[in-house]
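Tokenised fold entry reproduced for everyone:
>
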Amino acid sequence: MVHRSCVLFRKYGNFIDNLRLFTRGGCGGMGYPRLGGEGGKGGDVWVVAQNRMTLKQLKDKYPQKRFVAGVGANSKVSALKGSKGKDCEIPVPVGISVTDENGKIIDSQMLENPLC
């Protein structure tokens, strides 16, 4: 006798209310103290509101949910001032609230195009 089982999963839809992301700004470059050189500043992470973006699209486009900015360049003899790291932009829908891991609101009701 063969027993067969079937489990039905209820599909609730594609609506996503919140999304947790990992973000980190870039590290600064090393200086050159002997010659007074300064390392480059690390890159920044920007949250950019876009009109036709949804949280589901953000999750599908970036499944790893990690956003890390670039590292600043080190100072060297030929270039005493290191270059800045590459910035990272996160596209989000208009009207969301951005909070940190402790629940503190960083920005709320984002408008289109302004950077956070």
Summary: The chain has a mean pLDDT of 83.
